[in-house]
Amino acid sequence: VQLQASGGGLVQAGGSLRLSCASSGSGFNIYVMGWYRRAPGKQRELVAQLTGGGNRYYTDSVKGRFAISGDNAKNTVDLQMNSLKPEDTAVYYCYMRSFSGSHSSWGQGTLVTVSS
Question: How many angstroms separate the CA atoms of 93 and 101, rounded?
Fold first, then answer.
């Protein structure tokens, strides 16, 4: 499974962006889809996650501002980011993995820059 992320860019604080991640190829049954980010000088952080059972997870700092959605049939996952803050500036990576976690794939990363 290969993942292609898109939608990053430069936005002013308070603005919105939508990240998209599309998969191609075959390899494993996807159960979990999500987005991580790595801000400059910081560790990678799980931002949002969606499971095949419909459970959603958001890190505290994005709750109420970000929304993850996915299409299990198409194996795509989007991240709608609203009310963006400068601290949201990071490279965002999409990922997908199997139920057990034994198989996973990562996108190439897309840069989100939020100016103050």
Answer: 17
Q: What is the β-pairing status of strands 90-97 and 110-115?
A: antiparallel
Q: Does the pLDDT value for residue 26 go beyond 80? A: no
Instruction: Name 98's Cβ contacts closer than 8 Å, sequence gap at least 6.
Output: 28, 29, 30, 31, 32, 104
Only one residue has tokens 């990363």, namely 109
- CA-to-CA distance for 41 and 38, rounded, in angstroms? 8
pLDDT in tens, 65-91: 999 999 988 899 999 999 999 999 999
| DSSP 3-state percent helix, strand, coil across the chain (nearest 5) | 5, 55, 40
How many degrees, rounded to 5, is the angle at CA 98 between CA 43 and CA 95? 35
Please give the structure tokens belonging to residue 91.
């490279």
Pull the structure tokens for residue 60.
């505290």
The answer on pLDDT for 94 being more than 90 is yes
